[in-house]
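[job 4471] stage=fold_predict status=RUNNING
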Amino acid sequence: MRITVDIESEILEDAMRLTGETKKGPAIVKAAQEFIRREMAKEFGRMVMEGEFGDYPMTNDEIEACDR
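[job 4471] inference complete, writing structure tokens
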């Protein structure tokens, strides 16, 4: 899908530099994907901390014991 977006040149330059992309479009796509990934991870963490997975079969202590 093609869209037109107004982005400050400094922000676009930072996105290109930080993503390693040399073209504007791929840099914006990669930055958006990373933003979404991080927000979803935060949401998952919130859900875990609030106990929304109450039927999870193992406790934290049991999981850590398996790692040993």
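[job 4471] summary: The two ends are 48 Å apart (CA to CA).
[job 4471] exit 0
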